[in-house]
Amino acid sequence: MSISLAQLHKHLTGDTLRPIYLLAGEEHLLLLEAADAIRVRARALGFTEREVIDLEANGDWNELSMAASAMSLFATRKVIDLRLPSGKPGKDGAAAIIEYCENPPPDTVLLITSTQWSKAHETAWVAALEKAGLFVPCWPIKLGELPAWIEQRMASRGLNANRDAAALLAERVEGNLLAAAQEIDKLVLLRGPGTIDVAAMEDLVADSARFDAFKLTDAACSGDGERCLRILAGLRAEGEQVPPLLGWILNQLQLLARLSAQSANLSAAFSSERVWPARQGMYRKALGRSDRSHWERCLRQATRIDRISKGRGAGDAWLELERLLVAMAQPRAARLLAS
């Protein structure tokens, strides 16, 4: 069956474990901590041996059956820690997992972790696993949900923060759970248990927003012009230069232009461009706002900005980059671009 992370932690307070667990999702902190919680509980219940296996679709899936049948000289219970990063075991791997699920060996816990995941991954082998064990999806926390997550995590560490203080930290870390976790741990060291209000949060927490070109283009493709400008301002304040940023922006604009040219069959286009399923919704949203001519115009603007940034053209490269990003996010603003 499929359960939430909260349900998993409640389940782990019991005296028995299920024979199989699948933890999957692209929020790596949540996945890592959930996997650690299963390992810790398994050890407490006598599963003292652990065997780690890294496999992908082209791997030797006999390793799974050998690990399941191997007798231990040192322990009667063990954990098989199967790492499947892509979440795609392939035909042979899916068959091996289904066979394992049909007759799990006694005194063994199989823990499968996958760091790439979407609904498209949930095929026959996942259905077989849910019948024999537990599937725990680790979906990314949305920005609007982050303050509540921060409040809960702080409370678990003896800190009491009001909603405004939690919202401030959420804004500072820009949705980065690992950065939020690190800041909370630092607060515990600096202040110890107690109440933290907005003023204290301002004093104690550095601006940990992870500004980078990837988030810049993601914000633009998602239609969030305001966030684009905030990230760009952060990059500029950190000493970034325009030419390195343009490399990735050009890459994304070229991708959008190619995808737009194949808009009649986007699924095939995503496949040929090797776009991860988790990112396809963002690109669909961007492509739905404008046609191919818009993305080609944005490409011309990016080329112009490149010339300006290298002293080969007149103008303010940062200002023109702001205009480009806003036009990517909100095509109606394309009138701001040079003809």
UniProtKB/TrEMBL annotation:
The family database entries (InterPro entries) matched by this protein are listed as: DNA_pol3_clamp-load_cplx_C, DNA_pol3_delt_C, DNA_pol3_delta_N, DNA_polIII_delta, P-loop_NTPase
Entry's Gene Ontology molecular function annotations: DNA binding; DNA-directed DNA polymerase activity
> Residue limits of the DNA polymerase III subunit delta C-terminal domain?
214-327
Q: Where are the transmembrane segments?
A: none
Cite the DNA polymerase III delta N-terminal domain residue spans from the record.
Answer: 21-138
What Gene3D superfamilies does UniProt report for this protein, alphabetically? 1.10.8.60, 1.20.272.10, P-loop containing nucleotide triphosphate hydrolases (3.40.50.300)
Concerning Pfam families, the annotation shows: DNA_pol3_delt_C, DNA_pol3_delta
Key word Nucleotidyltransferase present: yes
What SUPFAM superfamilies does the database record attribute to this sequence?
P-loop containing nucleoside triphosphate hydrolases, post-AAA+ oligomerization domain-like
Report which reactions are catalysed by this protein.
DNA(n) + a 2'-deoxyribonucleoside 5'-triphosphate = DNA(n+1) + diphosphate
- What are its GO cellular component terms? DNA polymerase III complex
Name the domain of life.
Bacteria
Q: What is its EC number?
A: 2.7.7.7
Keywords in alphabetical order, please.
DNA replication, DNA-directed DNA polymerase, Nucleotidyltransferase, Transferase
Name the PANTHER family on file: DNA POLYMERASE III SUBUNIT DELTA
The entry's family comment says: Belongs to the DNA polymerase HolA subunit family.
Which NCBIfam families does the record cross-reference, listed alphabetically?
holA
Q: Can you name this protein?
A: DNA polymerase III subunit delta
Upper taxonomic lineage:
Bacteria, Pseudomonadati, Pseudomonadota, Gammaproteobacteria, Lysobacterales
